[in-house]
Design brief:
By secondary structure, the protein is of the alpha/beta class. It is built from seven helices and eight strands. Strand 2 and strand 3 form a beta hairpin. The model has no long low-confidence stretch (mean pLDDT about 95). It starts with a strand and ends with a helix.
């Protein structure tokens, strides 16, 4: 029997959002002990309801929607996951168990990345000051504005019609009339840096991020203007 379901919530190479709520139901229906979700590119830009969706481990990152300096990750852990962690009793350098009582005992297992943690705390504070619902709305508006502008240029979005498009990143098909390296070079000459894609999508799809501080209509318009000059 499976011991864990693993899933990426916001799958950035394709610009899609996977249905964590439905996967949580599958976990409960089939008595899978744990579900581990990568929410790095969605947390703060889209709802992530760990308790309601029965997510046991939710991995976040500092540099995406939180707009904090890169280099930090953090994990939300359910009571059921802590039980499994205690049973396994893994003792490696990357073990989670030593962190279980870190806050309670005011004792960090290793030398803490204190300035990174301070920056992350400030970024989380800014997000809470804005309000989660307001942040979700801001990301949604930026995504819709970006996609409308791209389609008005005649560009094709990558996700299939039935896919749930991510509010934090847009994936676009590279036009057949130009290669990705040439397109990327022309973008950079106009001050625009976008991401390519990976695996079977390499050279066929490019991506625009509109997450965190970049989920801003003025910034999206600057990117669209640079793309208009190229395509």
């Amino acid at each position: 029997a499976p011991k864990m379901i693993t899933v990426v919530h916001c799958e950035t190479p394709s610009g899609t959002l996977n249905p964590l709520d439905e996967l949580g139901k599958i976990k409960l229906r089939h008595n899978v002990p744990l579900i581990y979700a990568d929410v790095v590119a969605s947390l703060g830009g889209a709802p992530v309801l760990t308790d309601e969706w029965a997510i046991d481990l939710a991995l976040g990152g500092s540099q995406k929607c939180l707009s904090a300096p890169p280099g930090m990750c953090f994990v939300a852990i359910s009571p059921q996951a802590w039980e499994v962690i205690d049973q396994v009793d893994y003792q490696g350098y990357d073990a989670l168990k030593p962190f279980k009582t870190a806050q309670e005992n005011f004792y960090f297992p290793y030398t803490p990345y204190w300035h990174g943690m301070a920056a992350l705390n400030a970024a989380a504070g800014r997000l809470l000051d804005e309000g989660l619902e307001q942040s979700y709305s801001r990301h949604k508006k930026a995504a819709e504005y970006c996609r409308q502008g791209l389609q008005e240029m005649g560009l094709s979005l990558f996700p299939a019609p039935g896919a749930v498009q991510s509010p934090t990143v847009t994936a676009v098909k590279v036009p057949e009339s130009i290669t990705w390296p040439e397109l990327d070079s022309r973008f950079r000459l106009r001050g625009l840096v976008v991401g390519g894609s990976y695996g079977p999508l390499s050279g066929k799809v490019f991506r625009l991020g509109h997450m965190g501080s970049q989920a801003d209509l003025d910034l999206v318009e600057l990117a669209l203007d640079a793309i208009r000059q190229v395509v």
